[in-house]
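Aggregate trends can hide what the representation actually does to any particular protein. In the encoding step, the backbone of a single protein was reduced to a row of integers, each denoting a local shape. The record that follows shows the chain in one-letter code together with its fold in token form.

***
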Amino acid sequence: MAISGYLFRDREKIIEYFQEKGILVDPKALRIIMEKSLGTLIVRLVNNETLKNGYVREEDVLEIVSSQSEKFNSVREIDINSIKANSSVDDFRNVFVDRYTKLRNIVLAAGKLRGPSSIGDVRKLKNGYVKIVGMVSDVSITKNGHKKFRIEDLDDRIDVIITNKNPLHNELILNDEVLGVVGSKPESKNDSMKSEPVIFANEIIRPDVPFRVIDDTGREPEYVGSISDIHVGSKTFLKDSFNSMIKWIKSSGEDAGRMKHLILSGDVVDGIGVYPGQENDLEIINPYEQYEHLSEFVNQIPSDITVYIMPGNHDTVRLAEPQPAFNPKIREMFSGNAKFLPNPYNLVLNKKNITIYHGMALNDLVELIPGGSMSSIGSAIDLMLKRRYMGSAYGGKTPIIPSEKDFHVMDAVPDIFITGHIHGHHLGNYNGVRYVNSSTWQSQTEYQKMMNFAPDPSILTLFDLNSKQMVKKEFK
């Protein structure tokens, strides 16, 4: 039988465990064991050396703390879940082709760009009116102040220019996005160099989400709750606030009784090995015991509420996106009303599309938006919906791994879009898509102080599936 972590949260039981083995514990070593909640990891302190010496030293405990950081960081990276670890150029090309194909079809389905030409045909055209769809690269500003970018389809490519007098000049255009261009191709200069053909853009057409009106069915509210970035295991985990939320849910009050779904959109524990020196910020050092502690909260939630749990960049899955759902060892800690999702994922509830993404790419997008910041995260979420794409440009801070298809494409138009990661809280509406950057349950970290960012913690957001209502519940 496996030894439970619960056994090693009590000081007297820890001392008793070692005494049964004929081992004494240095007071400093015991303090670290308690502070870090080493749990079942303490069995590793019973080894040939400690049995011989009859003593556990502070250095012995610190060695385990350090080794755990390295061990669990490697676990995150090698958990490939049927996706290649050693990927080729062709593997990555297949992801880009899938993205291009899906987003091109979305652009065409909108009906604003009927009958586009292939780029190869446009290149052969002497001059005239043109319509094309392609993927963007090499965005730049020319020496004359015109915006220039390259656009390519599966067979060819051509440069597009937006003149500095064109109102479209200030349009934010990003590498790797797919869009349509309507414009004109001037006649090539008749010179010996045969200058490269270009298109002068008059209109840019993005995949975008169509405007919709949220129906009010008149039926009793059915709420979807959204929280994120709980960071169980961290010293800055707001345990009392989280407990208050759990008690509120169990109370079955008016709003609580109407909540039938709860989404935890990533970073549900703090993990280990995520950043240098993280072990100094942890209350529970063993990630699996962090999940065990989280399950103590989640398993209190009434069985008529389905809890959906997604990983983030702190969780014990691979860091590269898309991220797989949690492994069976973690899943078995939770009761039957807990369901586990990969990241990102489109969840269909009551015929509504709930698109969920932890949100690592928000960091990349914020840096690309002029004047963007973590405090204006809504502009980055708007951009994701406008592009119908949740990822960032290739080569950014968000690591990606090739799979059979690009899971960051929003194939279905979301009715509700949920992100996290930023630790702020922002409610918004883009063309009728209600969205939230969900609140954290962790107080300000030292890194956030250094970045002068103040989180907005301990907020549960409720979306009604039967109306446009959104409810903000604070537990501060």
Remarks:
- Residues 1-7, 71-85 have pLDDT under 50 and may be disordered.
- The CA atoms of residues 361 and 398 lie 6 Å apart.
- Residues 223-474 form a domain with the Purple Acid Phosphatase; chain A, domain 2 fold (CATH 3.60.21.50).
- DSSP finds 13 helices and 18 strands in the chain.
